[in-house]
Amino acid sequence: MTRPEAPAGAARELRSRYTAADLSVFTCDEASRFVPQGNGDPHTDVVLAWELLYRLEPELYDRLAGAERLHPGVVDWLPRDVDRIAEVGAGTGRLTLELMGRGKRVVAVEPARPLRRILRRKLAAAGQGGRVRVIHGFFDQLPLPDDHADLVVACSAFTPAPGHGGAVGLAEMERVCRPGGRVVIIWPNHLDWLATRGYQYVSFPGPMSVEFGSYREAVELAGIFYPRAAEEVRRLGQRTVPFEVLGINPPRDLAFKVLAHEAGPVKLTP
Ligand SMILES: C[S@@+](CC[C@H](N)C(=O)[O-])C[C@H]1O[C@@H](n2cnc3c(N)ncnc32)[C@H](O)[C@@H]1O
Questions:
Q1: Partners of 18 in the beta sheet?
Q2: What is the mean pLDDT of residues 156-164?
Q3: How far is the CA of 117 from the centre of ligand 1 (A)?
Q4: The pLDDT value given to residue 267
Q5: How far is the centre of ligand 1, averaged over its atoms, from the C-alpha of 79 (Å)?
Q6: Cut 0.70: pTM above it
C-alpha cells in the first residue's frame, strides 16, 4: 500500500490537521506536482494531507513509519553485494537503513526537505553518513545518469498518479537502472497497472503487526492515522497491533522487473 491511496474516510483526522493555507509550504517544483491546478484542499484530498504531513510534522510521520516495519522477507529478497543502489522517495529511511549493507554506494532521492534532514540525522547516528548520498529529486525527473544503479527501489512511495511517479516516473526508474538490474516497488498498489508494464509480484506470508513504541503511542497514532480502529486499539491495551485491526494491508509485498540486456550488434559471418 502506498500512503496516498489510503481510503479518504480512514484518514479524516489527518485531513483535518491542515488547511489550504498550508499549501504555501510547497516549493514551486512540489506545487507543480502536488497541486498542478494551483489549488487544492487537504480537507478533501488525502494525498495532499500526506504531503503536508511530510513537510509540517515530519517527526510525527517518522514515528508512524518506524512502527510500520517491513516484513523481513521483503528486505531479504533484495539483492546483496551490489555496487550501486538508488532509492526514490526514501522518506526518513525505513528502507534506506536496510540498504546500507547491500550496496557499496547508496543514493537516496527524497523531495521533502524535512524528511531528508531526519534521514541524514539517522544515517549520521548509524555512522553511515558518508556512505549514503541523500539528494533532492522527484520520480519523474531523477537526478541520476542512465544505467546508474544495479537496484532502483521505491518503498511505499510510487503510485501511477503523475505527481507520485506515474508512467514517466517508472520510465525514469528504468532509465537509471542498468541492463540486468532490478527495479523494485515495495508495498505496491495498482498491481494490474504494474503487471501490464512487465512487473512480477511477490508476497511474504505470516502475521504482521504495527509495533508502536508504547501503548500510549499506539492510542495517539491510531487516533490520527487509523481513526476507525482507534477504539479497538484502546480496547486491546497493548503496543503491538495486528495490521488487520488497523484495516490496512501490511508491508509484505513487492513488484519487480529485471531489465533486459539490450541485444548486441548482430555479427555477420563472412
Ligand atoms: C509514505 S512515504 C514513504 C517513505 C519511505 N520510503 C518509507 O518507506 O518510509 C512516501 C514518500 O514518497 C515521497 N514522494 C512523494 N512524491 C514523490 C515524487 N513525486 N517523487 C519522489 N518522491 C516522492 C514523499 O516525500 C515521501 O517521502
A1: none
A2: 98
A3: 14
A4: 56
A5: 22
A6: yes
Instruction: Spell out the residues 6+ positions from residue 263 whose beta carbon is closer than 8 angstroms to its own.
Output: none
Collapsing DSSP states into helix, strand and coil, what is residue 261? Answer: coil
Q: Which three cell numbers stand for residue 209?
A: 503487526
Residue 43, Cβ neighbours under 10 Å: how many? Answer: 15
Please give the helix or strand (H or E) that residue 95 lies within, else none.
Answer: none
- Are 127 and 101 spatial neighbours (Cβ–Cβ below 8 Å)? no
Q: Ligand 1 in contact with 3 (CB < 6 A)?
A: yes
The 10s digit of each residue's pLDDT in 81-91 is 999 999 999 99
Nine-digit cell string for 184:
523494485
Nearest-CA neighbor of 107 among 75, 85, 79, 136?
85
111 lines ligand 1 (CB under 6 A): yes
First to last CA, the chain: 56
Q: Which amino acid residue places its CA nearest to atom 19 of ligand 1?
A: 164
Contact 226, 232 (CB under 8 A): no
